Input
Amino acid sequence: MMKKTNYTIIAGKYNNRYKGNYLVKIEEEIRNLIISNNYQNILEAGCGTGRWISSLEDMSKKIFGLDYSFDMIKIPKIDTSHLNLVNADAVHIPFKDNFFDLIFCVNAIHHFTDKEKFIAECKRTLTNNGMLAVFGVDPLIDKDWYVYDYFESVYANDLKRFTSLKLLKNLLEAENFGEVEIKTVEQVRHNRIGNDIFNDPFLEKYNCSQLADLSDEEYQKGIEKIKNQIVKDPETVFKTSVVFYLVSAKKIKEVKNANSN
Output
């Protein structure tokens, strides 16, 4: 069984990750999907502390957020007339059939224990022609991140946890979703030189799941590797090159065979 990140520990510090980059292009893409398709009932699966759904509260839509961590969904302070928070697992969406026009998740599907069941649940709860939009990274394609270089086993674990773009596309098509599209939405690229790396919010243990899932000993070992490298070369460049993709698909109305004996 896949290990679940302990978000009870992370919840209070989670929003620190947005101090370095607010990922505004992902927000813009979500809003554009809603506006261009006139979606009304919207669910974010794996909403965490509400970064994305809180950005939609001015749109006068019916917004729902679902997360398995109760501590995470306690964080948002938002007008509940626009936002409905549900403590539940994304592989068991507690809503009736054909309810949502849009279901989206941002860098969260790798936490879902059964991707196939999540997609099936999305199909069940989406309206005909409703959309599933999955935002995330693919470490199989993009692996130029210093964290992978200095923290042992993190890259190998990410390859196990994250669903590749190709596999996600195959899963959607297997569930008979239509209009499957893959596009690049946002690119995070920066180089930090020497000790400036310790100003990176993502280097703090509980600001990303990759490091939070490490034992304290494993984490400190990686930190020492970074420090030792800086002693050897104070001008060491620590590179981050992370690409966020969108895989979107629409629920196609199934036509029943009218022929019967």
